Amino acid sequence: MLALSANGLLPKADYAIFADTGWEPRAVYRHLDRLEREIATPAGIPILRVSSGNIRQDALDPAHRFASMPLYILNQDGKQGMTRRQCTGEYKIKPIKRQVRELLGYPYPQRVPKDIFVEQWVGISTDEFHRAKDADVRYMRNRHPLIDLGWSRTDCIRYLASLGLADTPKSSCLGFPFHGNAQWRHIRDTSPSEWADVVDFDAAIRQGNARANASGNRLLGEAFLHRSRVPLSEAPIDHVTAAERAALQIAADDADELENGVVDGCSPWACRGDADAPTQDDFGLAT
Asked: Whole-model pTM?
């Protein structure tokens, strides 16, 4: 959407907003810098980077209130479960809303008049039209330009490739529990230091987040980043799951996605679930 706006195929956006969880892959930060330097700044579109903190540090800090990640749980009786997913709201939606209020001139707790609002673009493609929803506050009105254009995921990939951006990475936490096996393999095989980071975090989170433990609300089972509910260092990530094959079928014309393993992401208004298809929206654009 940012490139479409910068190149005049969509109206010029006033701002692009990137919600930073503090634990994105290095490739995402490099890509964001490139977008700002080569596309956004020449077009006069500021990229605003907003944050509620570092999700990795917060999870391991007993003194910090933590919005839980959707961790896979293995209970003492062998039953499986998941912790609540609160992180998208805390680390993505909340800082974007705070920034939007400031842009409108009504920072919290001021009331935004009912006739004052931004038009927010959410990058959901036609493959995922069911994810297109209205905003939950009156001062933000969602639009979905990719759906308006009739663009699919494949159309987006082809357009990015035409701009020399075929290597665009997906935005998500490095230790995103809903990574598919392909994404875990991609981290392991291309970035040993980041793989060591997520393996260490997986081990550190085994008894749940540090704040809950410090307050006496200990997890009765064990928590894991991988859906197999075994330590990430031992997880069967070389297995290609049926869900991955289905997701990759969306981009069958772009075979390098299978090799690169970049098939999933997490975005403010369409964070994918365990069995969902991948999302397109890495940015919010405001006009």
From this structure: 0.84
**Alpha-carbon distance 129 to 281, whole Å?**
12
Give the residue with greater pLDDT, 114 vs 267. 114
- Residue with the bigger pLDDT between 162 and 218: it is 162
Beta bridge partners of 63: none
The CA distance from 198 to 54, in Å, is 14
Considering Cα of 53, then 283, then 28, then 38, what sign does the dihedral take? negative
Nearest to 277 by CA among 258, 264, 266: 264
Give pLDDT, residue 255. 44
Pairing of strands 47-50, 80-82: unpaired
Name which of 64, 68, 69 is nearest 53 in CA terms. Answer: 64
- Contact indicator for 76, 43 with CB cutoff of 8 Å: no
Query: Which residues make beta-bridge pairs with 81?
Result: 73
* Domain chopping of the chain, boundaries: 2-286
Whether residue 10 is predicted with pLDDT greater than 50 in this model: the reply is: yes
Helix, strand and coil content of the chain, in percent to the nearest 5, comes to 40, 10, 50
